[in-house]
Specification:
about 75% helix; MCP; repeat
């Protein structure tokens, strides 16, 4: 074992667990502030009732409708719970992952020199990452339940508005077109003014919607304390498999950069001492972006099923008025919308996962370098 690899292994083993919690929490919070509008769009796409025409034609349409109807603030609806969730998720992920890696090293010693040289123990990474994801899922499910319900509240509010009230200026123009006594300019002015008034009224009603704590109390009152873990199966599948892909992709890409740099050192005759802590921010960003895309590409249908289960009551349930289990909900989505329905929102989710995950690993890595 080289001095560099020995020092890195010793530092990882001696680092207090609270630092993993602190670094993970900070990184998770920063990434969530960036990605929340994209997550809101994903949840709304996943939560459309199965027995009605789809409200949104795709991510761009959902984003546009949300912004036009609810304003910029609407894109951050329900942010409080995701912030807590991101802190809890990343703290648990990095804590359990690093602690499990240390445990596995003590039981099944691996070649630390090879790992530091860019040849990590894949088996240990997968086991540790899977355990980390499984642990995080139990913290995440109650938080995501409330988050998803807050994110679809506006859709429920809009569906409960009087049917006689047109939804936009365009619909009002179409109605006024049937009234020849009104001049076109006047019709447009009246239509625009009424549409603005409706939008203001809509946003005022939205401000009175229940918050996270009220929704949590309602869920407990209706379904007991266990009701907060509605959708746990989907979260468990997603987090276990997704976290394994997340950490593995990061380690594999990081190892590529480490091996490349060590080869350069060998050519110049210098001792190959480059390790993961020596990676530059742009290298951490690329490794983190790869991790984010891998995480969301694995088991995405499980996330779609989870979101549908968690927003069933808010969205009315449609013809499937009685809540169903994980497998049956998946069958219902597939029967109604095919495989596309199980991947609703996948494109925008994978696209935003790249920069979001890059933020997590860069910030975590920089904090690790600064404070150990």
């Amino acid at each position: 074992m080289t001095a560099a690899s020995s020092d890195e292994a010793t530092a990882a083993a001696s680092r207090p667990a609270w630092r993993d919690i602190a670094y993970g929490s900070a990184a998770g919070m920063a990434s969530k502030l960036f990605e929340h509008p994209f997550d809101l769009v994903k949840v709304r796409l996943q939560s459309q009732p199965l027995d009605r025409p789809q409200r949104f034609t795709g991510p761009v349409d959902c984003f546009t409708q949300t912004f036009m109807r609810e304003g910029a603030k609407g894109l951050y609806r329900g942010l409080s719970m995701p912030l807590i969730g991101a802190m809890a998720e990343n703290a648990a992920l990095f804590l359990v992952y690093n602690q499990t890696r240390q445990l596995l090293r003590s039981v099944y010693p691996c070649d630390e020199a090879a790992a530091a040289a860019g040849h990590p123990p894949i088996g240990q990474i997968l086991v540790a990452a899977g355990c980390a994801g499984a642990a995080a899922s139990f913290l995440l499910t109650p938080i995501e339940l409330i988050k998803c319900r807050m994110q679809v509240q506006m859709l429920t509010l809009e569906s409960n508005m009087p049917a006689s009230a047109p939804a936009s200026a365009q619909s009002r123009l179409a109605t006024n077109a049937l009234k020849p006594k009104v001049a076109p300019a006047a019709a447009f002015s009246t239509s625009t003014a009424q549409a603005k008034a409706e939008t203001m009224s809509f946003r005022a009603r939205a401000a009175e919607l229940p918050g996270a704590l009220v929704l949590a109390r309602q869920q407990i009152a209706q379904k007991g304390f266990r009701g907060l873990w509605l959708g746990q199966t989907g979260t468990l599948f997603r987090e276990t498999g997704g976290s394994a892909a997340w950490f593995l992709a990061f380690e594999v890409v990081s190892s590529y950069f480490i091996r490349a740099r060590r080869r350069q050192q060998a050519v110049t005759g210098a001792e190959p001492t480059f390790t993961r802590r020596d990676l530059k921010p742009w290298q951490l960003m690329l490794a983190g972006a790869s991790a984010g895309m891998s995480y969301n590409a694995i088991l995405f249908p499980a996330d779609s099923i989870k979101s549908a289960m968690q927003t069933h009551d808010e969205m009315g349930g449609g013809t499937h008025s009685k809540p169903t289990g994980f497998l049956q909900t998946g069958r219902n989505i597939y029967a109604s919308r095919g495989i596309k329905g199980l991947y609703s929102g996948a494109g925008i989710t994978i696209a935003r996962a790249a920069p979001s995950s890059a933020i997590i690993f860069v910030l975590y890595g920089e904090l690790e370098k600064l404070f150990g």
